[in-house]
Structure formats: structure tokens, C-alpha cells
Specification:
Blueprint (H helix, E strand, L loop, with lengths): L1 H40 L6 H15 L15 H15 L5 H6 L1
Helix pairs in contact: 1-2
Length: 104
């Protein structure tokens, strides 16, 4: 029972915090865009909802915010990195030629 009362208090607080973070993120994108882009590129200013849409699109495309993106999902060991480099050399057709690799 005690845990249930705790959740009743924490759930609305968590929802409000989540919404506040979204609103702050949208406002940051809005202010940065409207401050930089029109003067640098001559593009028009955007609204708050467009800024939120851009924030969501960046999250979908690049996996930003919480660090769950592809580039941060897993670190390769030195052995895995070397195997990856070797496969890329073979696939892309550059690197040591077969005669050079036999000489080694």
C-alpha cells in the first residue's frame, strides 16, 4: 500500500518533468534557429511547433538526447576494430594487394 501511494505521487511528477524537458528542448531549438539561421542563410524563422517537429525528426534520424544512438550503442575492442578495417579494405578494394599480403 505504501508503494502505491508513492507511485501516485511520483507518476504525475515524472510526466510533468518529461513535458517540461520537451518544452525546454523545443524552446532551445526555436531560439537557436531564429537567432542563427535567418541571418546566416536568409531562411525564414520557425514556430515553436516546427521546432518541436525538428527536435523529434533529429531524434528519429540520429538517435540523440539520451545517448542511445548507433554511434554510442557499443564500443569495439581493438581486435574487433582491426577485423572491421580488414573487411572494409577487402570490400572497397583498397589496401595491400594480394601479392603484398603474401610477402608479409
Amino acid at each position: 500500500m505504501r508503494m502505491r501511494r508513492r507511485w501516485i505521487f511520483l507518476a504525475p511528477l515524472a510526466i510533468c518533468g518529461f513535458l517540461l524537458c520537451i518544452a525546454i528542448g523545443g524552446e532551445v531549438v526555436l531560439q537557436l534557429w531564429n537567432w542563427l539561421v535567418p541571418s546566416l542563410f536568409g531562411w525564414r524563422q520557425i514556430s515553436f511547433w516546427q521546432a518541436l517537429g525538428m527536435l523529434a525528426l533529429c531524434r528519429i534520424l540520429f538517435g540523440g538526447f539520451a545517448g542511445h544512438g548507433l554511434s554510442r550503442s557499443r564500443h569495439m575492442t581493438p581486435e574487433e576494430r582491426e577485423r572491421f578495417r580488414q573487411r572494409m579494405r577487402e570490400r572497397c578494394g583498397f589496401g595491400p594487394s594480394p601479392s603484398e599480403s603474401k610477402a608479409q
